[in-house]
Amino acid sequence: MDPARFRQELARCNRCGFCQAACPVFHVTGHEAGVARGRLSLISALVEGALPWSREVEEPLFNCLLCGACTAHCFPAVPTADLMVAAREAYLERTGPSRMHRLLFEHLLPHPARLRLMVRLAGRAGDPRLLELAKALGLLRFLGRDFPEVFGLLGRPAGPAFRERIEPQVLTGRGKDLRLAYFVGCGMDLVRPEAAAASLELMLDMGRSVTVLPNNCCGLPAQAYGDVEAARNLARRNLKLLSGRSYDLVITDCSSCAAFLKSYPALFTGEDEGGEAAAGLASRVRDLVEVLDRADAGRGRLAIPAAVTYHDPCHAVRGQGFSQEPRQALGRVQGIEFREMEEADWCCGGAGAYSLGHYTLARRIMERKSNNIRRSEAELVVSSCPSCLIHLEYGCRLQGLPVRALHLSQVVLAGRQGGRLGVSGPAREKAGC
């Protein structure tokens, strides 16, 4: 951490407390340590040496959602999420990452095939008999006390991963001129393969060609944890993959991936070669949310009308400024009765892998979102982030709500094809969804 830089940023906080009104963690805990004002005071104490970088500060450093809501409500717009990431990086420099995180960031995320294998094994670990064995052997001390509940949240893998059925390749599209590249996020690949197939089908309407990339993780999970070097290494692998290839646009259907890919230049500040490549990629990256109008071939109609509400992912609404675009896309689908929910842009608690490491806190945060979904009386809750969809679906299941959570691409495609909110066409046949 650069003390001079952080003193300058921290001095902008005027302690007004407006961040309390927007912080999901504070609304659940009521603790000052869980709101931006308290977190910034903690960082200030660490920077000035008033507090040691000990294990006692780990929880308040890492239980922030990084949702950015505090900054949106802050008059001087203090970038609390960025400061928290930097503080986590400084903490890890002093304590070192855990073995579990080294496994994830160094050996799994750079290699999608290994990650898919691990997810399949984890799905088997959800077997109640194996969970009882883990308890008997005392393994829950290592895996975490919320280990059984976490597998309930994730559920069983949704069949074969998207890229197990559709290998990296160039597909001929039905569009006129655009050469598109599909950046397949880990969540879409592993837990929402049917949504990824729908997204690909829409992209085939947009471009004359669509290249399904063999990319690895974008690097956001590592960066959010504070392991910025691991995030930078993952970014380098993706930049090398795209080097020398000509695409008009690189599209991803995960808003978290899109926001982070657009921020790649910040990872390589001061690096001429890496910075130039990162800027070139960032300028071509598009969230599927912002280009869906290119795939619009007339107003479609759902086979069965549905009441739909929309949840704004943090990385879409605050990370990229997209709010109206997804609603406009839904508005072009006949048969939808759109019902705006209260606090649609309030974090659901999923926050990437946050719900896995902070299960109880994330579940309490989700209750607020689930109650808003209930009050909307919608049959479907739609979003553009796989982590959000997992958590939204889980929250509705816990409250017994008869509500499905679907990706925006699934609804748009179903409307265009007169479907029943499923996937159809060539992408479905290839993906087996």
For this entry, give a set of tags:
433 residues; Fumarate Reductase Iron-sulfur Protein, Chain B, domain 2; five-stranded mixed beta sheet; 27 helices; 10% strand; disordered C terminus
Could you characterize the architecture of this molecule?
Helix content is 54%, strand content 10%. The protein is α/β, with parallel strands linked by helices and 433 residues long. Among the domains are: 3-95, Fumarate Reductase Iron-sulfur Protein, Chain B, domain 2; 298-431, AF0625-like (Rossmann fold). The strands form 2 sheets. A 5-stranded mixed beta sheet has the order 1-3-2-4-5, with helices on both faces. β8, α25 (386-398) and β9 (404-407) form a beta-alpha-beta unit. α3 (36-48) packs across α6 (80-95), α16 crosses α19 and α24 crosses α25. Residues 137-145 and 422-433 have low confidence and may be disordered.
